[in-house]
Amino acid sequence: DAGVTQSPTHLIKTRGQHVTLRCSPISGHKSVSWYQQVLGQGPQFIFQYYEKEERGRGNFPDRFSARQFPNYSSELNVNALLLGDSALYLCASSLVGDQPQHFGDGTRLSIL
Amino acid sequence: GEDVEQSLFLSVREGDSSVINCTYTDSSSTYLYWYKQEPGAGLQLLTYIFSNMDMKQDQRLTVLLNKKDKHLSLRIADTQTGDSAIYFCAEVRGAGSYQLTFGKGTKLSVIP
């Protein structure tokens, strides 16, 4: 069975641009969460979606937004990119919100 | 807020047992997790324990939970070179919250 898939795997952008990252959850999972992992740190929670509704938001600026589609896939959007947005962006899915979360391999975003 | 604390490094010889420790913050956490991250990869869910348990064993992995001290440990028996990775402890923080809060990770190095 396919795990959580994320695209693209790598991305290079310049300051001020915007980016869209995509995530497909494990089949049957209805909840998707996004995390940011800066080098040398543990992942930081950005958003959780369940049944297309936002169920949680971490301490990130409004430049970060996300949505979940009827097929439970999700997009993370980041506007006005800053150098500090360079990180590994991880998507995780779970059956429902409070069940164990399974992670994809992430999208590595580099801002020049 | 308070951090999930882990020691940053652990070095063991192949065949020995490894014990990775974690101190978490929220006494109402329902689940506590251990994830493994290999270089360039996402997070792999290793095991988890429900807060009403004090021990869980899964093949070479043993998780111990001390709720009074908010202390979680992961023991890996017969450690192999393939176990070399970063191990993250994570808690679900806050009642009704499904967001994971991670420690900074413990880098386990296995010496052949």
Short description:
Chain A contains no helices and eleven strands.
The radius of gyration computed from the alpha-carbon positions of chain A, rounded to a whole number of angstroms, is 13 Å
What is the CA–CA distance across the termini of chain A?
A: 37 Å
Report mean pLDDT of chain A, rounded to a whole number.
Answer: 95
Number of strands of chain B: 11
Number of helices of chain B: 0
Reported for the largest beta sheet of chain A, the result is: 7 strands, mixed
Largest sheet of chain B, in brief, is: 6 strands, mixed
SS-derived structural category of chain A: mainly beta
Backbone shape of chain B: globular
Kindly report the greatest chain-chain contact and the residue count on each side.
Answer: A-B, 27 and 23 residues
SS strand fraction of chain B: over 45%
Assign a percent range to the helix content of chain B.
under 10%
Morphology call of chain A: globular
Q: Which residue ranges of chain B are poorly predicted, with pLDDT under 50 across at least 5 consecutive positions?
A: none
Structural class of chain B: mainly beta
Mean of pLDDT of chain B: 92
In helices, the fraction of residues of chain A equals under 10%
Strand content of chain A: over 45%
Distance N to C terminus of chain B: 40 Å
Please report the total strand number of chain A as a whole number.
11
Radius of gyration over C-alpha positions of chain B, nearest whole angstrom: 14 Å
